[in-house]
Amino acid sequence: MCACSNREFSLRKDNQHANVLGDTDKLNDDIRRAVTIGIDECFLSFPKPKPGDWVSLHQEKGQTVQEFERTKRTVPHTTYKTIYIQPIGPFDHPRAPSLETICEFSSNYFPGCELEILPQIEFSDFSKHLKTGKRINKYSKQPQYLAGFIIGHLKKMRRRERKNDRKELFCVGVTMADIYPEASWNFVYGLASIDDGIGIYSFARLDPVFPDIETARPCTDEERTLILRRAVGVFVHEVIHLFGLEHCIYYSCLMNGSESEEEMDRQPLYLCPVCLRKMYSAMGKEKQHFNVIQMYTKMLDGCKRLNLKTELEWYENRLNILNRTADN
What we know:
The protein is 37% helix and 12% strand. The chain is an alpha/beta fold.
């Protein structure tokens, strides 16, 4: 974790949200209604920070839609629409979440793109230099790997093994090993290199019994649902960073920063109006696939299958509001 404090953060006023969202008049009807109708009924304002929360420790100025649209970023185009998921290390532990389930649900956030799981690789496949990035965490007593070294190895794999790949949009490494971003941090859930289109995130601390995963009993249904919910949230959050979106400070949103389990569990599994519009812009010419009603309907079905009750209620309510206003 970071030990610095951020005294500059202040909550955005409600009347500033319209300025952050920008002009919506020229948007197609589907996305325009999704980011302007029933907002107060469905979206909570960004919570007042508590000591130790992400925005209390990190400077977050916010990113408006206009600022996002001016940034240089990777945009899906022609055949470059595949998001690769690279498993690193074993995933056969009975408490490990299913990558297939996570990808199936997460794909709904990226219409027009495809998610593909690559063959598993091992840390022993990495160069010898990775050893300098391995340490034993002084609190958990578990091995940790430096996230930047993992990203560096994934970059080498792209150049060496997939240099002629005409499908790859991004590559996201996933692992059951714990990771950290730099020596002064305790750990990190995930890290994204936007310029490289590569991210890495760890399942390790998503399990409530961490660091005693190896000796723990099989998951209860409640624990498995919690781990899956966290895994989907962290995965989607990191991939959305690769599209160029920064942390959200406008609403309670999937793109809020997270410094703890409490903050992570507080984040909803949906995007606020500002971030939803950014993702619409992020799709470039693939916007034709970005139909919010269809996305929400698929997410609703996914929530039913994964027993995500809170999200199920939210998507049902949101769809009722949007469908009702469409009929009027």
